[in-house]
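Data availability (excerpt). The following record was deposited with the supplementary files.
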Amino acid sequence: MNRAWLIVCATLACSSEPTATTDARSDSRDSTDVVDASASDSVEIRDAQDALVPDSLRADVAADATCLGMPFVFTRPEPFVPTVAVPILRVDIPITPVVTYGRIDVDLDFLRGAWAMPAPATGGIHNIFWLHRGVRGGNWLDNVVMYMNVIGRRAFRLSSNLGITDRAIWSQNIEDGFPSVEGQRYHVETMYDAAGQRRSFRVTQGSSVIANAQDVPVVASIPSRSPYPGGQSAFFLEIGVGAWDPAGGPEVPTYGWEYSNVVIRFHPVAPCP
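Predicted structure:
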């Protein structure tokens, strides 16, 4: 496949190169369209920032779809290892027209590399992934869907600020777990179930549960359009977000860590008939 733009059709009748398949972890989930974005897919460099991220990909929900209630899944199984030259993997997901989601899941595997050095005494924030509503450079408040990190070389933390507009509060956080081990591989499952009023994450290593936490989300639905004036209907995923400002904080680079088997599931509030 040599297209720079990957099209995710919201109905199985849409014409696209990716093959519609069934997600292996769907269980009782609705049927979904799946787009598999491999590392060999061609990429269009859209601005100076993207030039730093040649492994970026873009997924579009088709504007001419006959039903916008079809859940879809974005997958990228290939490993991504942040380096000084390529510090961040970004997946841009414009969605037109606006779709309201009841639940969004992000799962992935990661192999923990070395801690960033030098780093704050607390160990800094080492990123696992960041899923944001809108476009990069837009408003942060009320737009961070899920921001998963290893905090201070100890526990795992999942942050969100959907429905939060007070900078004094900033985000809703849940933490759990114990120090991860360099060179060990972990599986992460996260869920923002606005409709079901549950926000959660689980980190496992084989059959062992390393971290497990949940709370009640602030919002009851997740419209794809940012609520701020001029907000766009879109999401983006970034891995290695701390590398943008390695001299600052609290985020720090994750050079040498490995991320793979990324799966993003979007479940609309109103499913197709």
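Summary of structural features: Residues 6-20+29-268 form a domain with the Jelly Rolls fold (CATH 2.60.120.200).
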